[in-house]
């Protein structure tokens, strides 16, 4: 089965300004707007918000 644009790969960039990123997939049908997740930033040494980058 070929990959389609329903579940695209998105980059999550740290809002702490460290430049650290996570890569994940999201379902466009359930989350059409930009995704924000709270994850660990090893450069900042704490949990921060990671926002979807386009």
Q: How many distinct helices?
A: 0
Distance between the termini: 25 Å
- The CATH C-level name is Mainly Beta
CATH fold call: Rubrerythrin, domain 2
Can you offer a commentary on this structure?
One of its GO terms (biological process) is translation. InterPro entries: Ribosomal_bL33, Ribosomal_bL33_CS, Ribosomal_bL33_sf, Ribosomal_zn-bd. It holds the Pfam family Ribosomal_L33. Belongs to the bacterial ribosomal protein bL33 family. With 54 residues, the chain is mainly beta. It has a single domain, classed as Rubrerythrin, domain 2 (Single Sheet). Helices cover 0% and strands 46% of the residues. The protein contains no helices and four strands. It has strands at 9-14, 21-25, 36-41, 46-53. Strand 1 and strand 2 (21-25) form a beta hairpin. The chain is elongated, with a radius of gyration of 12 Å. The mean pLDDT is 92.
């Amino acid at each position: 089965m070929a990959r389609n644009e329903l579940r695209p790969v998105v980059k999550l960039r740290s809002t702490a300004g460290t430049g650290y990123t996570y890569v994940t997939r999201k379902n466009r049908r359930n989350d059409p707007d930009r995704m924000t997740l709270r994850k660990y930033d090893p450069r900042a040494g704490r949990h921060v918000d990671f926002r979807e980058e386009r």
